[in-house]
């Protein structure tokens, strides 16, 4: 897990600890706030801001603890197209299986935590689940991007449109986008001679 030092995180994110050794039977429920202070402590580039609830139900099955996790809320991430902040909704369910051992490790989808600690810290696990929900391409709905930036991008695309190898999928625009007209896109002068070439041949 990226940037994860278990002993350090146990103390840094103490409010996200679950003491498993106290759960001997039945189920226990926990709720955590993933707010701006949480993301500031995480200090990772993918998500800087957000407001989510994490609801965790823990059940002990012999030597393994099963954690059912529900994440619900929103995060703020940069739009791939205009780079302005955009809101993205997270609603996600996940399971963790945890058992005690000597040191922290992950084996065959089971998280091993030191028995001496008596519990697990969920701070980075929750963050990883959030990041896994962010789509590869994330852009504002049509018409909501920063207009100044989009105008610049359209001009840039017009200059580059003869390069078929470029992947401009993040910079494509709908023809019915009310924010911009095609008249704003200057014609690349290199294309002006194309009709003459076909006529001469």
Task: Report on this structure.
There is one protein chain. The protein is of the alpha+beta class. The chain has two domains: 6-132, no CATH class; 147-200, no CATH class. 22% of the residues lie in helices and 33% in strands. It has helices at residues 6-12, 36-42, 123-132, 147-160, 194-200, and strands spanning 17-19, 27-34, 49-61, 64-78, 85-101, 105-107, 110-114, 119-121. Strand 4 (64-78) and strand 5 form a beta hairpin. The longest helix has 14 residues, at 147-160. The chain is elongated and about 65 Å long. The N and C termini lie far apart (61 Å). 17% of the residues are buried. Mean pLDDT is 80; it is low at 175-191.
Can you summarize this structure?
The chain has helices at residues 6-12, 36-42, 123-132, 147-160, 194-200, and strands at residues 17-19, 27-34, 49-61, 64-78, 85-101, 105-107, 110-114, 119-121. The protein is 22% helix and 33% strand.
Compressed to H and E, one letter per element, the order equals HEEHEEEEEEHHH
The percentage helix is 10-25%
Structural class: alpha+beta
Main sheet makeup: 6 strands, mixed
Rounded mean pLDDT score: 80
Number of helices: 5
Total beta strand runs:
8
Number of domains: 2
Low-confidence segments, given as residue ranges, are 175-191
Radius of gyration: 25 Å
Beta-strand portion reads 25-35%
Query: What shape does the CA trace take?
Result: elongated
Span from first to last CA? 61 Å
Strand ordering within the main sheet = 2-3-4-5-7-6
């Amino acid at each position: 897990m990226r940037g994860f030092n278990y002993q350090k995180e146990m103390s840094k994110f103490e409010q996200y600890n679950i003491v498993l050794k106290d759960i001997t039977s039945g189920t226990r429920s926990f709720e955590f706030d993933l707010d701006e202070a949480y993301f500031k402590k995480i200090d990772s580039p993918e998500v800087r801001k957000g407001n989510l609830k994490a609801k965790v139900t823990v059940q002990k099955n012999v030597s393994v603890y099963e954690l059912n996790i529900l994440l619900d809320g929103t995060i703020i991430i940069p739009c791939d197209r205009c780079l302005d902040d955009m809101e993205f909704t997270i609603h996600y369910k996940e399971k963790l299986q945890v058992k005690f051992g000597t040191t922290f490790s992950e084996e065959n989808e089971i998280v091993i935590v030191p028995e001496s600690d008596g519990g697990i810290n969920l701070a980075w696990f929750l963050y990883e689940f959030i990041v896994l929900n962010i789509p590869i391409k994330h852009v504002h709905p049509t018409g909501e991007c920063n207009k100044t930036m989009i105008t610049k991008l359209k001009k840039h695309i017009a200059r580059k449109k003869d390069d078929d190898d470029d992947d401009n999928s993040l910079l494509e625009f709908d023809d019915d986008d009310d924010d911009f007209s095609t008249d704003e896109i200057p014609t690349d002068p290199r294309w002006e001679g194309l009709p003459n070439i076909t006529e001469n041949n």
